[in-house]
């Protein structure tokens, strides 16, 4: 563990935060706006970048994200160099406390803890809004170090404060971390229309007093919302109220509108074209959502994985799709044969397969065959224009056993996670119209 994390826990032993009261909430459906980091609506948006530069940066962020997954799944597999910070792909607004305070945070399906920067801060990164002040909220409650939520942290990452409160440390694979007091608070989610908001009292969150986001590049970001499968994640905590369902519909990167993250009754995907595949949660890594990829079809050619045990993570935070190296080689060889193209030899880093762009190219039907679900992808889900070349948004995984179905492949699909029914559903959709 990062030595500063241990030191930070020691410094927090003297802190004491008093408990407050909270309430209950009924089941309902609602949605939240997701802002892609390259959207003109994002604080990360850089208007001077070209489309090709944005795509290249997304590919580099994918490498950083992949390394984070590798670190969590097997610390011995983590490459020594993380190329660039990943910044987070999607941002979401929510309100915390009573009276409610608006926060802008990174939405992350690859981690669990929801946390914000809090006062009194020991060491915080700059933000352009005041720190959250738990003493000014009537619904804040510090959790005891003997409480069940505190035990969700490994023993080396939790301590007892001077008043018996739970002090936590949560570290990410890129050396980002948050250290603070674990508490409960009222979290308010929903759209800009206040009639569509819903409150979740007693939500577990990290009141971060020592924080470092190595991938932060905007002072507007104040924390992170974990949407993974572990017990501390927001979707796990509010599971009973939302029917254990959430979904998203991701727009292309250059869209001037927001994507949607839906919960409860609004999350259900129905209608023609819906396909479903088993959701596999592995107890050793409950945060991650695994599917089983059986094969990829390119026209009439089918390349099989030969696996059936949950071999690929579905993730909204990784732009590119990663598949195991041997399988990738067979997939690319079949794609090249069907397209009848010569691979570009001088590849722009970090791409693995590009070919000259020709007008009016005919692309074959390409589908990812998950167990029980054939997901047919469009060229925009698999290819992007980089200068005068088309490059594949699928790359080889450098580590055995780690594959990721990324967010470019999921653009213009409604993707529903039914955590109780243990399935993920896909429906091709124009996400700008929902």
TrEMBL record:
One of its GO terms (cellular component) is extracellular region. Pfam families: TAXi_C, TAXi_N. Keywords: Aspartyl protease, Glycoprotein, Hydrolase, Protease, Secreted, Signal. CDD domains: pepsin_A_like_plant. It is found in: Secreted. Residues 90-427 form the Peptidase A1 domain. GO terms for biological process: proteolysis. GO terms for molecular function: aspartic-type endopeptidase activity. Residues 1-23 form the signal peptide. Belongs to the peptidase A1 family. This is Peptidase A1 domain-containing protein.
